[in-house]
Amino acid sequence: MKLETGRSGRRSTQVCRKFFGRPLWILCAVSIVLRGLLVDASEQTTGSSSGTVITNSIGLRVILIPSGSFRMGAEENEEGSRIDERPVHEEKITKPFYLGVYEVTQEEYEKVVGTNPSCFSSTGEGQTKIQGLDTKRFPVEQVSWIEANEFCNKLNSLPEEVAAGRKYRLPTEAEWQYACRAGSTTPFHYGKGLGSADANINGVFPYGGAPRGPFLGRTAPVGSYKPNAFGLYDMHGNVSEMVNDWYARFYFKESPSEDPLGPMNGADRVVLGGSWGTDAARCRSAFRRSNATSGKARYFGFRVACEITKP
């Protein structure tokens, strides 16, 4: 199995500076786990400037994202930007919508589907990476776009969700980037730079002057890092997130200016946000890549969007 590598294609190496006699990456890993447990235990929405948080019948939390406009894509002079991120264009999200506060977790996925396909689980191929850890709050991965949609469909059929009038789906690419940016215009919602102190990424390849840092080499509990201004966690790194849109390299040249749904058809789907194995440049708000609808990997997960209608 190959790890995702940096732009140079070189295999990532761990940074192991000594600090009080302990490798720095061990101290950071312990800190990440503790932060994730604290967020889960307190159920905080710290940093949210948007609206209502709903906890549904399986414990999955969604937060209301307000409608608004934003500039979608990346300028040519943004380091690491690619031709499929251009042209930058004004987009409007005309209706508020709910979006998962976190990426869908292994526990949530198993409650709905009945299985846990994740690599970084007690029965997965990456079990040696998580020995002694409870992975319930780790993001589910090694699921395909098809399986992510099946999760949404099964969640939609639960009696409590039907009674509440809640309908789950994958977000559109425009909804995802709008929610990720949360009013920011910089490469990341954190600002101009990103390192592994900010998100679960390959810290050997930071961005925008951020210092080199540890490479955890696996997923981390959702909510281990600071949220954006909308109260969303892990929009950069942890797992790359599949969205509903078909992928087209030059779609931005013809995208409608309001609520774009993506191309009518295609071969692959859009994947956003970068992962634990990704260099920082590929975790930018505008970065987009493609993956087959049936493709799955330990780098890919998802979060859900939710619409509420009267039952």
Describe this structure in words.
With 311 residues, this protein is α+β, with helices and mostly antiparallel strands. It is built from five helices and 13 strands. Strands 3-4-7-13-8 form a five-stranded antiparallel β-sheet. The protein is globular.
Count the DSSP helices.
5
Task: Compute the number of strand runs.
Answer: 13
Helix content: 10-25%
Low-confidence stretches: 1-49
What is the spatial order of strands in the main beta sheet?
A: 3-4-7-13-8
Spatial separation of the terminal alpha carbons: 46 Å
Oligomer description = single chain
Query: Helices and strands: which structural class?
Result: alpha+beta
Q: How much of the residues is beta strand, in percent?
A: 15-25%
Shape: globular
Order of helices and strands: EEHEEEEEHHHEHEEEEE
Mean pLDDT: 88
- Rg, please? 18 Å
Major beta-sheet overview: 5 strands, antiparallel
Helices, strands, pairings?
Blueprint: E1 18-19, E2 22-23, H1 24-42, E3 53-55, E4 61-65, E5 68-72, E6 89-93, E7 97-100, H2 106-113, H3 145-156, H4 159-164, E8 166-169, H5 173-181, E9 240-246, E10 268-272, E11 288-292, E12 300-301, E13 305-308
Parallel strand pairs: 9-12
Antiparallel strand pairs: 1-2, 3-4, 4-7, 5-6, 7-13, 8-13, 9-10, 10-11
Task: Supply the key terms.
311 residues, alpha+beta, five-stranded antiparallel β-sheet, 17% strand, disordered N terminus
